[in-house]
Amino acid sequence: QELVSGESEEESNGVNLMEFSDEILLHILSYVPCTDLVLNVRKTCRKLATLCLDKSLTHTVLLQKDYKVNKDKVKQLMRDIGKEIYQLNMAGCYWLHSSTIDHVIRCKNLVKLNLSGCHITSLRLSKMLSTLQHLRSLAIDVNPGFDASQLSSECKATLSRVSELKQTLYTPSYGVVPCCTSLEKLLLYFEILDRSREGFMLSGQLMVGESNVPHYQNLRVFYARLAPGYVNQEVVRLYLAVLSDRTPENLHAFLISAPGSFAETGATKNLLDSMARNARLDALQLPKAWINGSGLLQHLKFNNPFYFSFSRCTLSGGHLIQRVINGGKDLKSLTSLNLSGCVHCLAPESLFRKAEDDIDSSILESLVVSCCNLRHLNLSAAHHHSSESIGNHLCQLLSRLKHLLSLALPVCSITDVAANMEKPPTQSNVVPQTFGKKVRVGIQTYPRNLMDQAKQKIESSVFWTLMGSLRFLETLEIIGSSFSSAMPRNEPAIRNSLPPCVRAQSVGDSEVAAISQLTYLQSLTLAQLPNIITGSGLISIGLQCQHLRTLSLANLGMMGKVVYMSALMDMLKHCKCLRDLRLEQPYFSAGAQFFQALSHCSSLQRLCIVSRSGTLQSDAVMSFMANCLEVIMCHMFMGESLTVCKNLQQSIVRSFQADRPALNVVIFPLLHEDLTEVIRDVPMRHLDEITLFKSRVAEEPPNLWW
């Protein structure tokens, strides 16, 4: 009887979830996907049935990465709470048929709608928008076959009230821009290919009937991002032509991201001159050809700037300090700065300077002092070599930026100069970077215990100190200054890679171990670290960085052998939150042991492996896909034959597509001549976020789109 009474007393003292206040329960439920709340959780009891339909939970519905959502779930969701939804994000739901998108019509009160990456025709768009009279923010794709003349008068009336538009163009067109007469924010993504699938060259001239003039008079934000190709440049010039005639009075953000050479013309020069006279900007990004050698920055006026990008410009540190941050004056408003590829941005002059020369620490110090509230900083794709001066190392200066959330650095910039001077790398531990005959490499002696290794470095390594000072860093990229991915964009795969910088030769396992101090790290990219011998630092990261969601590793250690495979497999066993994994390494063997270790990553959703002469084990891949139920993307570009790749791809699709509606599988030989044709069919969400390698820190202004 005493035992029974003790148990009943324990039950009575236990915590019952339903006894929590409504406020606490609503906060807990806010972490549950809306589809689960409406279709499952609310069926459990009366109290949850009421709470799950609370306005705080149904006001904004996010489906953009709900890979399990299907046609039936969308239909039921819209039927149950459609009238309660004010913001709906379906971006990247490429697996949903256009007929499924029709159910959005039920959301009569929509104010914001994101359909980027969704299949929708101009007729379906017209029917939908005709009923959404309260819409103010819209994101869509413009695909081949889009015809603005098919838009009804009711649809155009809705568009005339839209103030924010994000438009991704896959064909030369103005899209719906001419209909949006009240635009304040315009985001344009140009993804037009130079050739059609049939091999015909495309023209950037807009079709007859597409020559309506865009309305920019109320524009506050103009953003354009171009994929490689001359057609994208031709089309964006047509969008800019109207701006060159008259600059909007309230324009405060003007951003154009263009790869390669995008020459300045008379029209663009008139536009920039007009901006210099009439606009006060808060955010700026221009093609390098528009800035290089011009005095533009000297004449532009800034208000309270929060974002600057001078990616790949030849801007010198002297010009940066004098013309951008006003000689080192207070610039606390700046939160995001992209200097990727600016090889001279930390040097006083660029005229007679070599890219490998030491930086001027006083310029970086002025930058750090003036922009003390930086949260996102990109210094990658350049040789930023610190001098021997004590206390003036790049890592020591950056450690003052306590608010940093994301940081991108070249590998050679984290080298401890003093340590290198004391212990120059010997011939035995210089890592070969060729694909030729393999060379036996003498293995350095490392402490058995990882903590002992950390203690040896903690007092002497400037990079260790930097990592220790940036406790709240969420995104870190350490990329070799000469690294280039073998994965193409619109061209054949790159067959040869450039050797790493000489200063980077000593960067290896101990530097990787230093990263494990970043407790809140969510995204990590490591590329072209030549002195990786065992990969032991990866294990430390796996153990300590429990919030890690995205991991990208490329060309670590010697190029003829994957020396860190054992450590990587040990690391993966601890990465319970990992969702995206990208590996790029020649001769990578994706066998049973690797996939068995990867199966411990229970949250994994996307996997991409790029490997010249790499091999895979089909049975191991199938077993992995069966064990990891969350995986919806599997991209492998290896050295296997076309037959092996096609058979495996078909087997995966046939076995798992029915239960995973968003499943996207591409397995193809890396050096095959048709690779670019295969790449063009990959959903933009995956292509942009994981398949293609690039630096993503400060790539765009923060909170550019909801």
Automatic annotation (TrEMBL):
InterPro entries: F-box-like_dom_sf (IPR036047), F-box_dom (IPR001810), FBXL18_F-box (IPR047948), FBXL18_LRR (IPR045627), LRR_dom_sf (IPR032675). GO terms for cellular component: SCF ubiquitin ligase complex. One of its GO terms (biological process) is SCF-dependent proteasomal ubiquitin-dependent protein catabolic process. Residues 14-61 form the F-box domain. This is FXL18 protein. It comes from Anseranas semipalmata (Magpie goose). The lineage of its organism: Eukaryota, Metazoa, Chordata, Craniata, Vertebrata.
